[in-house]
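Budget justification note: compute hours in this period were largely spent on complex prediction jobs such as the one shown. Inputs:
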Amino acid sequence: MWRRGERLYALLVFLVVALEALALGGLVLVFSGRLFGLLDYSATRQTLLQALFLTALILVLLSAYILLYHAYTEAKELRDRKAYEDWVSRFARALFGEGALPLPPWPEPALQALLHLRETLKGEMGEKVAEWIRLARPPWVFWLKRSWTSRPERLEALEALGLARLPETLESILPYLVHPDPVLRLAAARAAARAAQGEGVLRLGEALLASGLSKGGLLEALLLLEDRAEPAVALLLDKGGKEEVWAALEAIGRLHLHPLAEKVLPFLEVQEPEIQAAALRALARLGYPPLGYEGVVLGLLRSGEEFLRVQATRLLPLLPPHLARKALWRALEDPSFYVRRAAAEALGSLDPGGLREAAETHPDPYGRAMAAQVLREGAWRN
Amino acid sequence: MEKLAWIIYGYQVFVLYYFAFLNLLYAVFAIFGLRMVARYARELSELSLKDLLEREAYLPVSILVPTYNEEKSITASVRSFLALRYPEFEVIVVADGPRDRTLEVLKEAFQLVKVDWVFRKSLPTKPIRGVYRSLSHPNLLVVDKENGGKADALNAGLNFARYPLFCAVDADSLLDPEALLRASRLFLEDERVLAVGGTIRPLNGAQVREGIVEVLHLPRGFLEKMQIIEYARAFFMGRAGWSAMDALLIISGAFGLFRRTEALRVGGYRTDTVGEDMELVVRLHRRAREEGRDYRILYTPDPICYTEVPSDWNTLRRQRNRWHRGLWEVLWLHRAMLFNPRYGRLGFVAMPYFLLFEALGPVVEVLGYALLPVFYLLGVFNPEFAFLFLLLALGYGILLSQLAIGMETLLLKRYPRLRDRMALLFLSLLEVLGYRQVLALERFLATFQVLRKRGQWGEMRRKGLEG
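Corresponding output:
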């Protein structure tokens, strides 16, 4: 994307802007001097000519750079792409026993090819590629530890380590989770989540607690852990603040972490609507009935927060059927469009006959219309 | 007479100060823009986009497509929206009482059938005549309504939208397959983000297959080529610069992504202005500032939307006239923000800039040209000086265009042929010789037509995307 040579271009832009500012500043001074009779016309004319000459020079320089850059990168990108494809096929042949593994050291395109294969292949073959990456002695960990590494290099290293998924690199990544730069922090969370294994997952959980990442960033890291996520999610649920708990609850639902379902229930009662909604969503996704909390869920149907009523309505089918039907029938009268919609959908999943009945006989015309709409959509989908 | 000469000279000096200050501002934009674009390019991780798709961490999006008389381009556009690489989205096409075959074309292309539909009327709109669903694309909804203008159509689309983010696009536009993915990422990474605007590029000259732009070449028409340069300058320098300064006031109506609840909270699009896209953004800023919230409205360089740009002078002039009237209307509606410390850099930098340099710029420019004969008649015209000054002004204009072309080369290189790049650089010289002056004149005229032409869009002639 952003090709090499941007530093030179940036330098060129700074030079252009500085020269332009100089010329403009000079013109302003000379014109002001002329306005107050301090300078004669020839001085003004000379400054104007100098500014013109400078602008022309800059234009020529800039055009030449752009054209040379275009031509150079075109050729270079073609070369790089070919080298990369060659290395992918050489490694693939070695992987399938159709050729010998070329001896390291390998050039940059070879490393890129290995990372691509590592990302594509799973299981035994993936581990074999990981071994080859180790064999290549990539510079990424060194870049992360070195104090004078530039920001783009650090980002590049974190991305490469995320792709390589080498558990032993986790300790080099984790310090970046408390880095003052939020972009590096997020990149590190992603890389660490891809690399963490076994004990490392808990270490990552601890680092996430201290990271101060946004809830979106936290959730992303947890989702990247996939089936390894449980210890980190449990830790965030136990020791986290509002953001961490929200992310953990979302992750429990999305990753279907059934062993943690019991831990979700107490969050239905906290005084934080967003957390309550996340807990309701998690239970609904898990299909886990809120045993002992039925009253709480029914109470949330009277909440002033619309989004909370929507989530509570969606959970109703997991309550005992007699309670659920009654509550859903009542929720079809809710003033909120979205609650009525959730109620009709929930009723449809719990009791299609009840939905048909609601579409015909529900006393609230809006509830009736919504039930009819959801019925039609069901028929549409089928 | 001496006094008159002094006044005239004073005006010239004023023009020079104006010119110098404006060009210095542009230089600042160039630096901020370059920094912003470079940072974006370095921070964007292709891996993170892939993860976003695979890990269900995305936010679903409703794409709103207001359409009026777009029978030529609507099928290709809707196909491009439906082909987007995004896990969960719906396309809501709002036919705003078209007088051509737009609705029929849609019905044929996407096997539409009329359905009864319950929706929440959060925003008032003109009456809905019918709702259609597609037998071939379950995530396509077409709303037929009485004509009420683009903003009214967008409001109707908002009433039907289901998802937390909505993307307003023009019906004559195509989106890059990954545009939504890249733009929506920003909402996920930062909860403070209220809206994100992307880069718009002219579609003319592109090879399109199944609604996807395969390769971009320079179009044949002179006007279309000129607009390529203009768009590069506006987005890679203007918008990028303002976004870097946290004072982005414009998100193009052709492609913008918003949090739906935020847009609803401020009352949706205003229907009494032709600058409804800018107005919504300014209102979002204003409301957030008044509430003392920490928020962000961003421009992101890579999500690309291709739009068909006018290929004839009349349509182009009408478009620019409308844009300029829209700008004046927005400035008037939000005049309370001007130089108001409550609105921070918006009140002290962005709004005054738009008033003094964007809205009044054409007046200063056209008066500058128009006064030359007056100076000549008064005997205070110095042809050598005028010529040199004009050359310098044109030189600076070319310089800005070339900086933008350079930025595009480094970031995207969407025009892969070297000869296209050479042509763009050459055309940046031609752009300042006539093209820009004609548009300045149109904007000058628009300044005095704001009240008379209030709410008028004017007919836009399109060639159509399939062609």
